[in-house]
């Protein structure tokens, strides 16, 4: 019974730190989204979903992006004069292989935020949108390619290879 107040104190401290991190992530994403709109005053936040983002998640995300980037090698890009443009970024992405240690590291490095919001235009038209973001402890926000978009593009690539 003497330890009950101690457990309550520790539990409330843990909850406060989680809520603080979520509040900071929420504020950072709201600022990021509203500043990217034509009229920030018309931004109406709706739902926020949070989850920890680890090094393992980061490596998996980077691997999916690298696979999509490598697929760009199958497409020939030309400039206005018709000259073929080089794929220097894709060559570099294939050479950078993550270490096994990073691929299994579950250390929390950021917060993943899925956010839905509404934007109202000056004429009163309202559109609903959403985004996926990675928020780092220092407040930096990175807009991620939505998971469903990555999955659809990867399926298209796999179907094209067969």
Layout of secondary structure:
Layout (H helix, E strand, L loop, with lengths): L3 H33 L6 E12 H17 L16 H8 L4 H4 L4 E13 L5 E10 L5 E4 L2 H15 L1
Antiparallel strand pairs: 1-2, 2-3, 3-4
Helix pairs in contact: 2-3, 2-5
Summarize the structure.
The protein is of the alpha+beta class and 162 residues long.
pLDDT < 50 stretches: 3-17, 89-95
Total count of helical runs of at least 4 residues: 5
Q: Give the DSSP E fraction (strand runs of 2 or more residues).
A: 15-25%
How much helix is in the residues? 40-55%
Secondary-structure element order, N to C: HEHHHEEEH
Describe this protein's structure:
This protein is of the alpha+beta class. Helices cover 48% and strands 24% of the residues. The protein has a four-stranded antiparallel beta sheet with strand order 1-2-3-4. Helix 2 (55-71) packs across helix 5. Residues 3-17 and 89-95 have low confidence and may be disordered.
């Amino acid at each position: 019974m003497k330890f009950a107040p101690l457990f309550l104190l520790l539990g409330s401290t843990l909850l406060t730190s989680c809520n603080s991190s979520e509040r900071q992530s929420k504020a950072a994403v709201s600022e990021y989204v509203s500043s990217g709109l034509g009229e920030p005053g018309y931004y109406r936040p709706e739902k926020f979903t949070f989850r920890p983002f680890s090094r393992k998640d980061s490596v998996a995300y980077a691997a999916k992006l690298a696979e999509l980037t490598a697929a760009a090698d199958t497409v020939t890009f030309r400039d206005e004069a018709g000259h073929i443009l080089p794929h220097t970024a894709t060559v570099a992405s294939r050479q950078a292989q993550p270490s096994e240690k990073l691929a299994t590291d579950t250390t929390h490095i950021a917060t993943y935020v899925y956010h839905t919001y509404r934007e109202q235009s000056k004429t009163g038209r309202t559109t609903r949108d959403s985004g996926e973001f990675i928020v780092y402890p220092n407040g930096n926000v990175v807009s991620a390619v939505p998971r469903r978009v990555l999955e659809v593009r990867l399926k298209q690539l796999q179907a094209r290879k067969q």
